[in-house]
Design a protein that fits this description.
The protein contains 21 helices and 30 strands. α8 packs across α9. Bound molecules: 5'-O-(acetylsulfamoyl)adenosine. 5'-O-(acetylsulfamoyl)adenosine binds next to α12, β20, β24 and β25. The site of 5'-O-(acetylsulfamoyl)adenosine has 24 residues, from α12, β20, β24 and β25.
Length: 651
């Protein structure tokens, strides 16, 4: 475990540095180190210059209207995201260039050129219109990683209907809550998807969710599995994707949207049990995704770019779909798991398509590391020229392994820090400029101002831990929480005046490089995915045998963190292995498999303050086997000693 989560002291002593290879810098999209100063001196001008690279139906009047915490970017402008991702590329040589390269889990594949993708998006957009979907209507999408997913997104963007994508691994109940929160009229799903050779029953899940969603009139079902899926279509509600697009025109005008019109909602876990609907708007989000893709990944016309994320998370939104397509790039998407049919699947895909850029998560790298070098060694990975990581802190060992075994020791590795809320990468190397150090996300992107501060909001000295904050608005910043503007203010803008609170801890070293330490709130980061302790706890107490529950994140060698729960059963219920299994399954059923606890400990009592608050900090200490922190506010000190004893006995 010690080598998975190195202490920050050890990290800051990390001495290995990797300057950008000369040949890389010579060709890089950004070579001028002066960009940082220039952007800093006039950050609005910096972003306005980027905006010139997009297509506008009408140019903007004002770059930024900043009334903290409300930002409006490029007001007065008229723009469409789908137009920027498709139509713009149709007039030149990109017309017949591969836009999307799709690899299905069973090995089937499809390539969509820009022209072909444009036609399919138009047909589906017309299909949505025929169902009465209008500008501003929310559309929920619950799909596997198949081409119909980006097609649906781009069609929504085309007609101005904000999408809300729910990751296909979420439970029917999670889907239902997210549909109801944004009052969607339409759900787009599929008859299933493939995961490790099995069919994921998305349509059955959707049917279950739709039992409690009064606003949904229509559900569109893409065919992925066919007869084996055994789905039942509900008369008057369900329509097959193919039937909907049949006979639709391949022309559909892109709706000129106001810069600040909503582009999408994406739910993410926060401190409370209820997920937050993060709202992103049109121009700023597109610009942020576009600019960072171009500079951070050094994206060029000839690149074959592959981000391994699922589009159900923000990484897939920004860096599989919107960023790469706005750049006219070739973006690879893969439906399945890294270890199916074998542990070399990722590297087989790299070889098959000659991918030049690979962007993945530390958890995937650590899993590959465990499986051993022989799997990547089986494949020709010489096409790769740049590697990226995202989602959680990367330990230097994993960084080095990635660099050596995937990048052949020759490719820059960009460790990119950002959030669902930030929409775009904010702390990252620029691969032609930055001297890399394993484990550090290095510097804020030009124009971005980050700082590490103490409780009072004062900057801490280099090497000291503190809270990571952002001092200036950036174009792809979330604009609000859907339906809950107070929560937006409270969550992000209340700790310090006019400063964005990230919820992450960090340190800055004496070079000004940032080292992200992880969440400081009740959010657990499991394999790069956010789960709130409260969500897990509500799922547990929903079980008839549970009286009380507390959950925490515990370091995990591969996943970064795993969920661990402490549970008090109701009077008369016996603890047993069967009960432990049942409770784990219950959480997975209620939320989704990602939230399934690795371990559940039964306790007669939980450590609480005198005002009755569960002290998760002490539970974390117990689970990590650390010396217990301050226990003076505990109502009953005996509880902790007992738990600790019990925990050590169980281990
Ligand atoms: C893109 C994404 C956000 C949280 C964030 C951090 C953690 C993300 C890094 C990282 C260390 C990184 N969106 N995080 N990237 N920690 N180094 N490069 O992951 O909304 O799902 O999660 O993820 O804690 O606050 S997210």
């Amino acid at each position: 475990m010690a080598d998975t989560v190195p202490s920050i002291e050890a990290l800051l002593q990390e001495g290995r540095t990797f300057p950008p290879p000369e040949e890389f810098t010579a060709q890089a999209n950004v070579r001028d180190a002066g960009v940082y100063q220039k952007a800093d001196a006039d950050f609005e001008g910096f972003w306005a210059q980027w905006a010139e690279e997009l297509h506008w139906f009408k140019r903007w009047d004002k770059t930024l209207q900043w009334d903290p915490p409300n930002a409006q970017w490029f007001t007065g402008g008229k723009i469409n995201v789908s137009y920027n991702c498709l139509d713009r590329h149709l007039t030149g040589p990109r017309r017949n260039k591969a836009a999307l390269v799709w690899e299905g889990e069973p090995g089937d594949w499809k390539v969509y050129t820009y022209a072909h993708l444009h036609r399919e998006v138009c047909r589906f957009a017309n299909g949505l219109k025929s169902l009465g979907v209008k500008k501003g209507d929310r559309v929920t999408i619950y799909m596997p990683m198949i081409p119909e997913l980006p097609i649906a997104m781009l069609a929504c963007a085309r007609i101005g209907a904000p999408h809300s994508i729910v990751f296909g691994g979420f439970s029917p109940e999670s889907l239902r809550d997210r549909i109801n929160d944004c009052q969607a009229n339409v759900l787009i799903t599929a008859d299933g998807g493939y995961r490790r050779g099995r069919v994921v029953p998305l349509k059955q899940n959707a049917d279950e969710a739709l039992e409690g969603t009064p606003t949904v009139r229509t559900s569109i079902v893409a065919r992925r599995i066919g007869d084996d899926a055994n789905v039942s279509m509900k008369e008057g509600r369900d329509v097959w994707w193919d039937d909907l697009v049949e006979g639709q025109s391949t022309h559909c005008d892109a709706e000129p949207m106001d810069s600040e019109d909503m582009l999408f909602i994406l739910y993410t876990s926060g401190t409370t049990g209820k997920p937050k609907g993060v709202v992103h708007t049109t121009a700023g989000y597109l610009l942020g995704a576009y600019a960072t893709t171009k500079w951070v990944f050094d994206l060029k016309e000839e690149d074959v770019y592959w981000c391994t994320a699922d589009i159900g998370w923000v990484t897939g939104h920004s860096y599989i779909v919107y960023g790469p397509l706005a750049n006219g790039a070739t973006s690879v998407m893969y439906e399945g798991a890294p270890d199916y049919p074998d542990r070399d699947r990722f590297w087989a895909i790299v070889e098959k398509y000659a991918a030049t850029i690979v962007y993945t998560a530390p958890t995937a790298i650590r899993a590959c590391m465990r499986w051993g070098e022989s799997y990547p060694a089986k494949h020709d990975l010489s096409s790769i020229r740049l590697l990226g990581t995202v989602g959680e802190p990367i330990n230097p060992e994993a960084w080095m392994w990635y660099r050596e075994n995937i990048g052949g020791g020759r490719c820059p590795v960009v460790d990119t820090w950002w959030q669902t809320e930030t929409g775009m990468i904010l702390i990252t190397p620029l691969p032609g400029l930055t001297t890399l150090t394993p484990g550090s996300a290095t510097r804020p992107f030009p124009g971005v101002q980050a700082e590490v501060v103490d409780e009072k909001g004062d900057p801490v000295a280099p090497g000291q831990g503190g809270y990571l904050i952002l001092k200036r608005p950036w174009p792809a910043m979330l604009r609000t929480i859907y339906g809950d503007p107070e929560r937006y203010v409270e969550q992000y803008w209340s700790r310090y005046p006019n400063v964005y609170f990230t919820g992450d801890g960090a340190k800055m070293d004496d070079k000004g490089f940032f080292w992200i330490l992880g969440r400081v709130d009740d959010v657990i980061n499991v394999a790069g995915h956010r789960i709130s302790t409260m969500e897990v706890e509500s799922a547990l107490v929903d079980h008839r045998s549970v009286a009380e529950a507390a959950s925490i994140g515990k370091s995990h060698e591969v996943k970064g963190q795993g969920v661990v729960a402490f549970v008090t059963l109701k009077e008369g219920v016996e603890t047993s292995d069967a009960m432990e299994r049942e409770l784990k399954a219950h959480v997975a059923r209620k939320i989704g498999a990602i939230a399934r606890p690795d371990d559940i400990y039964f306790a007669a009592d939980l450590p609480k303050t005198r005002s009755g608050k569960i002290m998760r900090r002490l539970l974390r200490d117990i689970a990590e086997g650390r010396v217990l922190g301050d226990t003076t506010t505990l109502a009953d000190e005996g509880v902790v000693e007992m738990l600790k004893q019990q925990y050590e006995d169980d281990e």
